[in-house]
Fold this protein.
Amino acid sequence: MDNGKFLELCKQTVVDYFNNRVDRTDNAIITADEVFIVWSCKTLQNNKALLSTTVSDGMYYEITFNGDRNELYFDAYKKWENKCISLN
């Protein structure tokens, strides 16, 4: 899959996931403009991307495309904590 097409597909997958699961009382839906790519990589026929949104919910998403099987794998994660650990 072309890398540009893969990244568009990733953004739309996150949009669909979020909009189908958001609490309706929040009155929040997002578009692809509110999804950003944190990191992406293409190796041979495979792609992987890490994504997040402008929503401050601590979620991030990992999407992998298996070019051999023409399958997309989707993982959604919640960020629970961010702290500095000094190694000094």
Notes: Helices lie at 3-21.
